[in-house]
Specification:
The protein is α/β, with parallel strands linked by helices. Helix content is 31%, strand content 20%. It contains 12 helices and 16 strands. Strands 5, 6, 7, 8, 10, 11, 12, 13, 15 and 16 form a 10-stranded mixed beta sheet that branches. A two-stranded antiparallel ribbon has the order 1-2. Helix 11 packs across helix 12.
Length: 379
């Protein structure tokens, strides 16, 4: 059939054709099996099909489920240290979450997460994954908080941490010096609520603005009559002035990073703060809303962004049995934030445990548990 290295002889009419010809240029007899253009189109179609079949494995995102981004704003976006942009998959139930490791895993940190560490939620996780054991770990210094938890995670004392604030740049940098990275995964929305001694409400206090809260906790205002209340000295309480994520958030968003006033009394945790406010006339404290709803010994204050008349309650009713989820999600309530699971990306068991825990809270069942705990689901 061949006649020279560069030509192909037609078997019918003996005409010489180019070695790349598909059919005879004279009689049209087929010289090859498939035309190059068809081969090219077929190859293109195969590549397109392979993309859709294997894109999930290539990019790590299963196509049959939704995803939640773990990236979030960092205080200084100009720094080269940034969190990972891993996408965490969402599943229907806790039991559907794969790659859950066996073992006992220490965790802790933010006291805001206390409702998510309840026996109900821990039992649900244990039922779904019996060999995944969670052990809440108190800090050695006795002062729990987001900063303490992240520090313990970096030091290897925890498998993963819970934080009510974003990871700070110096924490990212310290982790990288230890040859691993930190991942922060948002799992819930929370609101900060102010609460006062019940007598203040009985005596006509309707609420406060953010500016008034700033003046109270920096010591500029010391009497309730100056912010629409009775003639009564103000006694403010705050927990963990050095280690708490809630305190960090409060300092940034309410105090504009100014120092607390000398009149502010420090308490260990929200439980002690509630007890102190309930016992002290003219007192005020603040905490995550889910921790202070359903408390009969204190009263939660409505809050406004700018004026002292446009108040928004952190509760959905006067008896404050549930948080105001609508106001938390639509931005009408002035003080809301995201809660994070902080994961050690070291390719080892601790990182796997943190990812599994985050995926459980982000599952459909997990988000229902988040809501039942008094927080707002993030999805």
């Amino acid at each position: 059939m061949s006649s020279g290295s560069n030509n192909v002889e037609c078997p019918k009419c003996k005409t010489l054709n180019s070695s790349t010809a598909y059919q005879c240029s004279y009689c049209g007899t087929r010289l090859r099996g498939v035309p190059p253009i068809v081969l090219g189109l077929a190859g293109l179609l195969i590549l397109i099909g392979a993309y859709f079949v294997f894109k999930d494995k290539l990019f790590g995102v299963p196509s049959s489920t939704s995803t939640v981004s773990s990236s979030s704003p960092i205080p200084n976006p100009t720094t080269p240290v940034t969190p990972s942009s891993t996408l965490f998959t969402t599943y229907p139930s806790l039991a559907n979450v794969p790659n859950v490791p066996n073992g006992i895993f220490n965790y802790g940190g933010s006291t805001t997460f206390a409702p998510l560490r309840s026996p109900v939620i821990v039992t649900a996780i244990n039922k779904a994954h019996p060999n995944f054991k969670l052990l809440y770990t108190e800090p050695p210094n006795g002062k729990p908080g987001s900063g303490t938890g992240i520090a313990m995670l970096i030091e290897g004392q925890m498998s993963f941490a819970e934080s009510s604030r974003s990871v700070k740049n110096d924490e990212f940098e310290l982790a990288e010096k230890r040859n691993f990275k930190l991942e922060q995964v948002p799992v819930a929305i929370d609101g900060i609520a102010f609460y006062v001694n019940p007598e203040l409400i009985d005596q006509g206090l309707k609420g406060i603005s953010l500016a008034q809260a700033h003046d109270i906790f920096t010591g500029r205002v010391n009497n309730w009559k100056d912010v629409g209340g009775p003639d009564q000295e103000i006694t403010p309480f705050s927990r963990n002035l050095s280690a708490g994520g809630t305190v960090d958030y409060f300092s940034e968003k309410v105090l504009d990073k100014q120092p607390f006033g000398s009149n502010v009394q420090e308490v260990r945790d929200t439980t002690e703060s509630i007890r102190k406010v309930a016992m002290t006339r003219g007192s005020i404290g603040y905490a995550t809303a889910s921790e202070v709803i359903n408390q009969n010994t204190i009263r939660l204050l409505p809050l406004s962004k700018a004026t002292s008349s446009d108040f928004v309650s952190p509760c959905i009713d006067q008896v404050c049995k549930a948080v105001n989820k609508t106001a938390f999600t639509d931005g009408n309530y002035p003080l809301t934030r995201r809660l994070f699971v902080v994961i050690k990306q070291d390719g080892k068991l601790d990182g796997q445990a943190g990812s599994a825990y985050a995926n459980m809270l982000l599952s459909d069942e997990g988000q229902k548990l988040v809501e039942e705990a008094g927080f707002v689901p993030i999805r």
